[in-house]
Specification:
Chain B: This is DNA ligase (ATP). Chain A is an alpha/beta fold. Chain A has 2 domains: 186 residues, 4-Layer Sandwich (Metallo-beta-lactamase, Chain A), CATH 3.60.15.10; 127 residues, 3-Layer(aba) Sandwich (Rossmann fold). The longest helix of chain A has 14 residues. The chains are: A alpha/beta, B alpha+beta. Chains A and B meet through α3, α6 and α8 of A and α1, α2, α5 and α6 of B.
């Protein structure tokens, strides 16, 4: 069997001709395998969805219970056979519930990473390298300039600023699924036990993290809180809300942004960020290279991001590599500002 | 070095002056000697790190990185030092400790050109991404964090109960790493001895006068002189105990700017401290500020520049005469001593700021409106208003209210069209509060707007809300934090912009740069097609 018969790019996303299913399709399809709950990977309207229990729950929170015709939960490590293709899910370390998809038929193994990171994250299961013939990797931070520092050190940068400016509000822009809760966990681990205030778009997802056994401490909604409470407090909001009229309730705020993009000064400047925090839910360059090598793959396919640099790197290591030029994947939450009270994550 | 780098990193994103002071103060408070002292030296420009050309940095990364990956990365980041700092490979056997700022300072003072690259590479191996960025920026002379020496000294002063002016006073006698300065400010050491024979004295500043103030002021108690549009300086000279004569020129914040004006050194042929305005005088005529500006902020002063832009002091006060401190004397007494001194000097470089005679406030109103016919003559272009000083006022540091007033000429105004708006920082981060505006000029296909300036104050909080709402409503393009708003002849927002003057500029597309522009009024009533034209502004330059 050729790899292309087991998996190939198509206009709707990665498609398995042998199994007749899609992985993270960008449009509605009869059968979809979903790696994780971010809106650019998990879309509503598929007839049948297979994912981890947590990804299914998060999709229900974001899109409503009827987000798919039918759903099937699959635990990490368990396998199902779809049209003769053996399918199993393995932790990707990206956000809660995130999984890599392992496909096997006639002795050929392809692993689709989805988005992943090899750095420690207390809010999700750690990334597990899975041996395979073909590894399908993302390359969001696929340039050697992206080296994420320890997240604890970046968190300390934030808390040091809170100590120096105890009368100001630190608004931390963070994607509402994953990054926001990870920032809460990081601050708690650093000993910050004051209430953390959140934008309405974060509440339901953060509550769900609580039900999954994550103690994130005293989390309160911004809405309905007396303005005086925000002095010296940390507020977490989707990045788009920081520049929205919503942010005017905070006196003299310091605009912070937790993202791997903050590594590059021009990117931080462009967004008007005053305190960039280099905290990412994607593997950095060293992480991508190490993870790819750990799979022992013979061939590398790169889905989205800075494909060219990663393909070049692979080729200098005698690894067959090709870019898939997939479109439709990127950062979620980048554009339209969610309004408080609207269904979190609902399409604008 | 990593800690100092973290401070520079944070300051590079921080726009607020007070926030910068607090960031520096926190660093000084939590960093031991001598590291903080070398950091202070770096921040005040007392040390030069600029030892390497970008070529050295490029050569180092080429030995360590795949050239294709380097080019892709450089292309993405757009800055050589930053690219190298970020992609510098991690060593398995990295040095046990990061280099200290003091080690780097000592190292740089002893390295030769041939040993520098090897040593620089060792330092980079020991630093983190931010540390490498800061070191490469410092060593290539490209560090920009927007903090003046004065701001750094203000941060030091804030560690204890000392004023920035007091720090200025002891500063000339100090050298890095300033341990005795920190000890004094923090209250566990004596005030450092100033052996400086030509110290700076804190200057006296004036309040802007308002219409309502005149009713309470008796013209007979005051004298008036022109307010010159140059830079405020203090010329000081004296002889030290070692018999060495020192001559210094200070800015109004106490920065020593002597090196930038070597042509004045010989003219300061007296012992004492004189307060005055630095101006460019050609053929006996004072040039307007935009001529002086061409000589300011130059790293090196060329012979050509000295000849083309001869510096001059127009004196208006005498603080110290010989050994005698005159500051407690009334203005009239100091003025008499100043007049005697200037006459004795009879220097072509130093003259007296003439008094403006007036019997009542009406006379002075006329003089301010038409300086040329009220005694300023051909120098009128360099007059930016009048100063009103109480005849009995002692020379007091700071800005006491009452003894000295400044009464500036009315600003120029222009009706311009809002073209772009940028989000502000901090309190204003959810407001579009920085405005780029333009005026009409003839383009290839009819009239087009050309940007002539940028303003981010002058409006009230209420007006800010209105402009912000307009920007959000009228956006036609977005570039990161910048929005382009509609600016057609019949659609858009006209801003009345007030400014102090114009200078020719090669950095601006319009060819002109505005001094001190601010939004004076919102002209909702005016269609953009009726806003001013570039020719109107160009006429002001003639």
């Amino acid at each position: 069997m050729r790899p292309e018969d087991l998996l190939c790019p198509s206009p709707k996303g990665l498609y398995s001709p042998a199994g007749d299913f899609y992985v993270d399709p960008t449009r509605a399809v009869p059968r979809a395998l979903i790696t994780h709950g971010h809106s650019d990977h998990a879309r509503a309207g598929h007839a049948h969805v297979l994912a981890t229990r947590q990804t299914l729950d998060l999709m229900a929170i974001r899109y409503g219970e009827g987000f798919a015709g039918s759903t099937q939960a699959l635990a990490y490590g368990d396998a199902v056979v779809i049209n003769g293709v053996r399918v199993s899910l393995h932790p990707a370390g990206h956000v809660l519930g995130s999984a890599q998809v392992r496909l096997e038929k006639d002795g050929l193994v392809i692993v689709v990473s989805g988005d992943y990171k090899d750095a420690a994250d207390p809010t999700c299961a750690p990334f597990e390298p899975v041996r395979c013939h073909v590894f399908v990797s993302e390359a969001t931070f696929g340039l050697p300039v992206f080296r994420h520092p320890p997240a604890a050190a970046e968190t300390e940068k934030l808390l040091a600023s809170v100590r120096i400016f105890p009368e100001r509000t630190h608004i931390v822009g963070a994607y509402s699924l994953g990054k926001a809760q990870r920032m809460m966990a990081l601050m708690r681990a650093a000993g910050h036990d004051a209430p953390i205030y959140v934008h309405g778009a974060l509440t339901a997802i953060t509550d769900y993290y609580g039900t999954q056994g994550m103690a994130l401490g005293d989390i309160r909604p911004v809405k309905g809180t007396d303005k005086a409470a925000f002095a010296g407090a940390v507020v977490i909001a989707p990045p788009s809300a920081m520049t929205d009229i919503w942010a005017r309730r905070f006196a003299d705020p310091i605009t912070c942004f937790a993202s791997g993009w903050m590594r590059v000064r021009a990117r931080a400047r462009q967004r008007g960020v005053e305190l960039p925090l280099v905290v990412s839910d994607h593997a950095d360059w060293d992480g991508l290279c190490a993870s790819i090598q750990a799979t022992g793959c013979e061939e590398l396919w790169v889905t989205h991001g800075a494909e060219d640099a990663l393909v070049h790197w692979a080729q200098t290591r005698q690894l067959r590599a090709r870019p898939l030029h997939m479109v439709g994947y990127g950062e979620e939450d980048e554009e339209a500002a969610p309004t408080e009270g609207a269904a979190p994550g609902a399409a604008p | 070095m990593n800690r100092f780098a973290a401070l520079l990193d944070r300051m590079s994103y921080e726009a607020g002056r007070n926030a910068k002071i607090r960031l520096m103060a926190d660093y000084f408070r939590t960093t031991p000697d001598p590291e903080r002292g070398f950091a202070l030296a770096a921040l005040t420009g007392a040390l030069s790190f600029a030892n390497a050309k970008p070529g050295v940095v490029r050569a180092l990364i080429m030995e360590r990185a795949d050239p294709v990956l380097f080019e892709m990365s450089y292309d993405y980041v757009g800055d050589l030092s930053e690219t190298v700092a970020l992609m510098w490979p991690r060593l398995e056997d990295a040095p046990a400790h990061a280099p200290l700022l003091s080690e780097i300072v000592h190292g740089l003072s002893t390295l030769s050109r041939s040993t520098l690259p090897r040593r620089l590479a060792d330092w980079l191996d020991g630093l983190d991404e931010t540390g490498r960025w800061a070191l490469l920026k410092l060593i290539t002379g490209a560090m920009r964090v927007g903090a003046s020496a004065r701001l750094a000294k203000t941060a030091v002063a804030s560690l204890g109960s000392v004023t920035p002016d007091e720090v200025e006073l002891v500063w000339p006698g100090l050298a890095p790493p300033y341990e005795e300065l920190f000890a004094w400010v923090e209250g566990h050491g004596p005030r450092p001895e100033t052996s400086n024979p030509a110290p700076f004295r804190p200057v006296m500043l004036a309040h802007a006068i308002e219409e309502a103030n005149f009713a309470d002021l008796n013209p007979g108690d005051f004298s008036a002189e022109w307010k010159w549009d140059g830079i405020r300086v203090q010329a000081v000279a004296g002889t030290g105990p070692d018999g060495v004569r020192a001559v210094r020129l200070y800015s109004r914040t106490g920065e020593d700017i002597s090196e930038a004006f070597p042509d004045l050194a010989d003219a300061i042929a007296f012992d004492g401290a004189m307060d005055g305005e630095l101006l460019i005088v050609r053929e006996g005529r004072v040039e307007p500020f935009n001529v002086l500006q061409q000589r300011l902020n130059r790293k090196t002063v060329t012979v050509k520049m000295l000849a083309e832009f001869p510096a001059h002091i127009r004196a208006y006060d005498l603080l110290v005469d010989g050994e005698e401190d005159l500051r407690a004397l009334p203005f009239t007494a100091r003025r008499a001593r100043l007049e005697a001194l200037v006459e004795k000097l009879s220097s072509p470089r130093i003259d007296l700021s003439p008094l403006v005679p007036f019997a009542g406030w009406d006379d002075l109103t006329r003089a301010r409106a038409t300086p040329a016919s009220a005694g300023a003559g051909p120098d009128a272009d360099a007059v930016e208003g009048v100063m009103i000083k109480r005849a009995d006022s002692p020379y007091l540091p700071g800005r006491p209210k009452g003894p000295w007033w400044k009464w500036k000429r009315d600003p120029h105004t222009v009706d311009a069209v809002l073209m772009y708006a940028q989000r502000g920082h901090g309190k204003r981060s959810s407001f579009y509060s920085d405005y780029t505006f333009g005026v009409w000029t003839q383009g290839e296909e009819g009239d087009v707007l050309v940007p002539v300036g940028k303003a981010y104050f002058g409006f009230t909080d209420e007006e800010l809300k209105l402009i912000d709402a307009f920007v959000r409503r009228a956006t036609i393009n977005r570039f990161g934090p910048v929005r382009e708003v509609v600016h057609e002849k019949d659609e858009g927002l006209v801003l009345e912009v007030a400014f102090e003057g114009l200078a020719r500029s090669t950095r601006h597309r319009s060819g002109i740069a505005m001094r001190f522009p601010r939004i004076a009024r919102l002209r909702w009533d005016k269609p953009p097609g009726e806003a001013d034209r570039l020719e109107t502004l160009e006429a002001l330059l003639r």
